[in-house]
């Protein structure tokens, strides 16, 4: 089989698997989120947990209480994780490694709790097995569940009438963890384990190599973290090289499994949405826009990586710098596109070594706001915000008060939606500005001039978008960067969530308005086209000025 | 429907909000501790237990030489110096194949220094193996993302066969045959790329050389 045919087959196999799984999985999630606790049979372990933790599962929360729960849980999570990372030296299985410095510990704690997984450290040289399992693996599950819970609250805003109540955060979190993430993680872990991903508690072992040298080989509880890293669109690697490391991703089969895992929940949630609002077309429109963006991006990167751009790539004859032989260029590109469009931030090849155009597309993917399909939950609520903007713009054109799924999109809703869209650019621009004002920042850059500005923009953009991928060059482990980026990650995540929940509350308080002849049909291809246009327009208007000063200026100089 | 706030409406609005926040914080602490036990201890331990059914893989696919000595992991590339070994790709992990410092070069595709380095590597490999520079495949002159790539392309392995055979006094055809036997196809016929595991190839080479020595 020729390489091109094999690459096409690999992509088709992935798409086929996603098409087959998204319906049953999406409907399963919809049932889990659509039924109230205490009224439908809860799992026995759930009833036990509610009693043990003294949670009233029937309490139906207002949006402000739901938000309080999210914030309380996240602040406590940051605290405990910070404690674990700082106290590493005295914890079991720490491999004798010291605790993280206070600023790096805070940065890492905020990073994993906000589903960003920015890493200013190298895993194998910094963290022991206890910190990775009891600290990071736990937040890999929970930060993902928080994102889906907020999505669920927003959908309830659309389907509930004249109530203002959005469900119970603790019930959502419990169900998403026990019924969705944990079972899928166990299945995925067994598959990856069979593929060769490691799971042991061995100390690093030094061996004499075949030619007489020495090599120290690490161990670790890797597969239990690897699987949820992808499934929960987290992305923080056990090892510095992330999913390029052979112990995280040993062969082309595990590579495809990992790509599938990081796409499967985000691509199933539109189905969940359609099922919950009782109109599958509404979900189909959104999944179509996501799918088209993903396919276009994949096509562009595959083309760029095979077109031999750049002197180094021409000298090598193929884009193999930063890529593994076992994945090849198509397998690496498939992973790169999927990870940057889902806010995962995991990599199986080094994006900074991609061709200029290929790397540019990957950066653009991140700046689109990670909505195609986006992170678990966050991709869907980001896309629904854009759908609301689209409905509003459409309403302005025909001079009618716009409605979406029977809810009026008025001034209040638009303030929340516009506020949501402004959070990230405000943080990117403010964060970059602050970084430039602080003396010493320029010492942490690897390059002068526009490329240095690109490094700063990429770092704050990655943090504020909760993506976590890094642009090589920046020395990110300084107190200034650790604290500034922790601030960007926290504000980017929770200001966005607060606005989404506020929007959900305002929608849930409304009654339902029946569609009439003036209503924009949001379940039709026309709306998909409009939504696609708004996605591109919003990203372009937001970032073009900043991009002009960094990558574009570099390209022109 | 039971309302979470209903019990606290009698106090002032600020006090009520404070009570809600306080109660949520307490639930958060209890919830997080329970989940840390479940997801941070019991779940990794259960997967660890399942891993004991496949100890070879869970422990890192360690491989031994003919004498039974552990010489590395078949998943982790290692350095091979000298013309008598098949050489792996360039590595940016530490000083080269440092498995405690994985990573790539992170150098860009339009980086002039990287281009010069690649050209130099290409000339060196062509000279050592007695081939034309343009015959050297891309994986031979580029560093992988992990710095621990255990594989090379079949083309790069075949290119090295005559030089390795000469250095060891083996038949070129026998070494070429060895390379062909060591080519791993694509999983399911379509995933990833064809590859040759350098450590496995060199172990097979060592066995071939030992057989040749006893026969001769």
TrEMBL record, chain A:
Keywords: Cell membrane, Ion transport, Membrane, Potassium, Potassium transport, Transmembrane, Transmembrane helix, Transport. It is a multi-pass membrane protein. The chain crosses the membrane at residues 6-26, 63-85, 141-159, 180-198, 252-273, 285-304, 378-398, 419-438, 483-505, 526-548. It is found in: Cell membrane. GO terms for cellular component: plasma membrane. Pfam families: KdpA. Its main location: membrane. GO terms for molecular function: P-type potassium transmembrane transporter activity; potassium ion binding. InterPro entries: KdpA (IPR004623). Part of the high-affinity ATP-driven potassium transport (or Kdp) system, which catalyzes the hydrolysis of ATP coupled with the electrogenic transport of potassium into the cytoplasm. This subunit binds the extracellular potassium ions and delivers the ions to the membrane domain of KdpB through an intramembrane tunnel. Belongs to the KdpA family. The system is composed of three essential subunits: KdpA, KdpB and KdpC. This is Potassium-transporting ATPase potassium-binding subunit. The lineage of its organism: Bacteria, Bacillati, Actinomycetota, Actinomycetes, Nakamurellales. The gene is kdpA.
């Amino acid at each position: 089989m020729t390489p091109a045919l094999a690459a096409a087959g690999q992509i088709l196999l992935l798409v086929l698997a996603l098409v087959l799984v998204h319906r049953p999985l999406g409907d399963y999630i919809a049932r889990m989120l659509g039924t109230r606790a205490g009224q439908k049979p809860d799992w026995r372990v759930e009833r036990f947990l509610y009693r043990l933790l003294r949670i009233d599962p029937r309490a139906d929360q207002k949006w402000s209480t739901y938000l309080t729960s999210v914030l309380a849980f996240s602040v406590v999570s940051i605290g405990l994780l910070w404690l674990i990372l700082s106290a590493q030296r005295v914890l079991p299985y720490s491999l004798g490694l010291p605790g993280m410095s206070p600023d790096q510990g805070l940065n890492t704690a905020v990073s994993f709790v906000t589903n960003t997984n920015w890493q200013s450290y190298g895993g194998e040289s910094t963290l022991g097995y206890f910190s990775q399992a009891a600290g990071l693996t736990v937040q890999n599950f929970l930060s993902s569940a928080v994102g889906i819970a907020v999505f669920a609250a927003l959908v309830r805003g659309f389907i509930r009438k004249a109530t203002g109540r959005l469900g119970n955060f603790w019930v959502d979190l419990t169900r998403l963890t026990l019924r969705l993430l944990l079972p899928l993680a166990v299945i995925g872990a067994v598959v990856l384990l069979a593929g060769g991903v490691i799971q042991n508690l061995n100390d690093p072992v030094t061996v004499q190599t075949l030619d007489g040298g020495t090599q120290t080989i690490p161990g670790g509880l890797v597969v239990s973290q690897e699987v949820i890293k992808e499934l929960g669109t987290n992305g923080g690697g056990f090892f510095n090289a992330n999913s390029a490391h052979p112990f995280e991703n040993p062969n082309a089969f595990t590579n495809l499994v990992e790509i599938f895992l990081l796409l499967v929940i985000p691509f199933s949630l539109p189905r969940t949405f359609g099922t919950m609002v009782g109109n599958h077309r509404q979900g189909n429109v959104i999944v179509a826009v996501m799918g088209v963006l993903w396919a276009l991006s994949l096509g562009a990167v595959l083309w760029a990586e095979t077109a031999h751009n750049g002197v180094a790539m021409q000298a090598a004859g193929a884009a193999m710098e930063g890529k593994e032989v076992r994945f090849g260029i198509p397998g690496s590109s498939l992973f790169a596109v999927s990870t940057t469009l889902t806010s995962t931030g995991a990599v199986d090849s080094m994006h900074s070594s991609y061709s200029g155009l290929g790397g540019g597309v990957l950066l653009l993917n991140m700046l689109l706001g990670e909505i195609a399909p986006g992170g678990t939950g966050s991709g869907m609520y980001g896309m629904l915000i854009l759908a609301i903007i689209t409905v509003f713009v459409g309403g302005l054109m025909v001079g009618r008060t716009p409605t979406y799924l029977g809810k009026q999109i008025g001034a209040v809703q638009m303030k929340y939606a516009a506020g949501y869209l402004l959070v990230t650019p405000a943080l990117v621009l403010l964060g970059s500005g602050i970084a430039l004002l602080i003396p010493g920042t320029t010492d942490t850059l690897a390059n002068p001039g526009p490329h240095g500005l690109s490094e700063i923009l990429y770092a704050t953009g990655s943090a504020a978008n909760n993506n976590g991928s890094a642009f090589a060059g920046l020395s990110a482990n300084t107190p200034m960067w650790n604290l500034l980026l922790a601030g960007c990650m926290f504000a980017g995540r929770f200001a966005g969530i607060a606005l989404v929940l506020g929007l959900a509350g305002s929608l849930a308080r409304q009654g339902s308005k029946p569609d009439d002849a003036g209503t924009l049909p949001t379940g039709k291809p026309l709306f998909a086209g409009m939504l696609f246009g708004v996605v591109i327009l919003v990203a372009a208007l937001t970032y073009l000025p900043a991009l002009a000063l960094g990558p574009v200026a570099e390209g022109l100089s | 429907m039971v309302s979470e706030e209903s019990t606290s409406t009698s106090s002032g609005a600020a006090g009520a909000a404070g009570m809600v926040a306080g109660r949520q914080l307490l639930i958060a602490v209890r919830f997080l501790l329970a989940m840390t036990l479940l997801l941070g201890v019991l779940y990794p331990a259960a997967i660890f237990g399942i891993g004991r059914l496949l100890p070879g893989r869970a422990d890192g696919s360690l491989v031994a030489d003919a004498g039974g000595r552990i010489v590395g992991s078949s998943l982790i590339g290692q350095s091979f110096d000298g013309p008598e070994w098949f050489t792996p790709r360039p590595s940016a992990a530490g000083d080269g194949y440092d498995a405690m410092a994985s990573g790539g070069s992170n150098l860009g595709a339009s980086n002039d220094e990287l281009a010069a380095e690649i050209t130099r590597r290409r000339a060196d490999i062509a000279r050592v193996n007695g081939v034309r520079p343009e015959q050297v495949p891309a994986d031979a002159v580029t560093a992988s993302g992990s710095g621990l790539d255990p594989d090379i392309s079949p083309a790069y392995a075949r290119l090295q066969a005559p030089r390795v055979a000469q250095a060891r006094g083996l038949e070129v055809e026998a070494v070429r045959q060895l390379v062909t036997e060591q080519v791993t196809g694509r999983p399911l016929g379509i995933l990833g790329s064809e590859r040759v595991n350098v450590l496995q190839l060199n172990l097979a080479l060592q066995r071939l050389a030992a057989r040749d020595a006893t026969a001769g």
